[in-house]
Amino acid sequence: METSEFIQDELERVKQGISRVITGLSPYELMWRPGVESNSIGLILFHLARSEDGFVQGRILNQLQIWEVEKWYQKLNMSVSDTGSSYTPEQIITFPVLTLEDLMNYAEAVRVRTLQYLKGKNNADFDKIINMPRRGDTTIGAVFSLIVVHLAQHIGDIAYIRGMQRGLNK
Q1: Distance in angstroms between the alpha carbons of the first and the last residue of the chain
Q2: Most buried by CB count within 10 Å: which residue of 3, 27, 67, 84?
Q3: Are 39 and 47 in contact (CB under 8 A)?
Q4: Ordered per-residue pLDDT tens for the chain, 170 residues
């Protein structure tokens, strides 16, 4: 199996995992926070899409992100400079109310471009070195490993918050 195929398979598993943990969420549950400085499921979903967009479009491809190119910041009524991470408690509290549909549409637009990038890549393509802020020089393969682990980790966060809201398996 080629590395690109493996990554595509893992991204599909992540997509299925996200679908499982968000199915049936109400708008209230999407934006509910378990604590004053805690993220909502909506903010986590936004963070995931912005992170993948930033890693693939911004860092690996060194081009404008889908966020800017397709004007998702306008569609979601947010700032073009919003990276979806490193929020202050004030930013968490004032994070806008977004719909699940809008969040997932942005995530899907990002994923389409990620998969376009992966198609036709061979194993050697993932050995290319790029520079990542706070990480230094790293391979494209390591960045994709980070993306998959990052997404999977946050699926657990979402499942935990959902469990707090509804209890086990509800």
Answers
A1: 37
A2: 67
A3: yes
A4: 899 999 999 999 999 999 999 999 999 999 999 998 899 999 999 999 999 999 999 999 999 999 999 999 999 999 999 999 999 999 999 999 999 999 999 999 999 999 999 998 999 999 999 998 888 999 999 999 999 999 999 999 999 999 999 876 66
Please name which of 50, 40, 43 lies closest in space to residue 83, comparing C-alpha atoms. 50
Q: Where are the domains of the chain?
A: 3-166
**CB neighbours (10 Å) of residue 102?**
16
> What are the beta bridge partners of residue 136?
132
Is residue 152 within 8 A of residue 48, CB to CB? The reply is: no
What is the second-level CATH architecture of the domain 3-166?
A: Up-down Bundle (1.20)
Tell me which residue of 133, 169, 143, 157 sits closest to 40, measured CA to CA. Answer: 157
Measured in degrees and rounded to the nearest 5, phi and psi for residue 169 equal 50, 40
Long-range CB contact pairs, 15-22, < 8 A, 24+: 15/111, 17/152, 17/155, 18/45, 18/48, 18/107, 18/151, 18/155, 18/158, 21/155, 21/158, 21/159, 21/162, 22/100, 22/104, 22/158
